[in-house]
Design goal:
Layout lengths: L1 H7 L2 H28 L5 E12 L9 E4 L2 E8 L1 H6 L6 E4 L10 E4 L1 E3 L4 E6 L2 E6 L3
Length: about 130
């Protein structure tokens, strides 16, 4: 009869403790799920090195340009299967010499695009474009 008395006595406190324990457990579990979402656990990041920088548009075919440095590193993020299959040749890095924000000479921002993934960063962010004098 000791077990019966143990279970029946102080029923309200025992049910309250059980409810509080369930609430704490649900709160911790939901916070762990939010941390997984915030950390992008389903994504993979990869750096593709030595991507050649091209010129989107020069406007003058008879006035070639030199880009320094000619190669950049592109950091991409996306689905692990897509990121793993992506080859350096699939990534395009370029400078736009005709854009409204483009300076007349000097440093130009490098843009990049890759199919099916997000470009996180391009290093270096800017390159020097020099017009050849031939």
């Amino acid at each position: 009869m000791a077990w019966r008395a143990f279970l029946i006595e102080n029923r309200a406190q025992k049910l309250g403790s059980l409810a509080l324990a369930a609430l704490i457990w649900l709160t911790v579990r939901s916070n762990l799920g939010m941390d997984r979402l915030a950390s992008n656990e389903g994504f993979r990041v990869r750096v593709l090195e030595n991507i050649p920088v091209g010129v989107l548009a020069t406007g003058h075919a008879d006035n070639p340009v030199q880009i320094r440095p000619a190669m950049v590193h592109v950091e991409i993020e996306g689905d692990p299967d897509v990121v793993q299959r992506l080859m350096p040749g699939d990534v395009q890095a370029y400078v736009n010499l005709l854009g409204p924000e483009a300076p007349r000479q000097g440093m130009f921002r490098v843009n990049a695009r890759a199919p099916g993934v997000r470009v996180v960063a391009v290093l270096p962010e800017s390159v020097r474009v020099e017009r050849s004098r031939e």
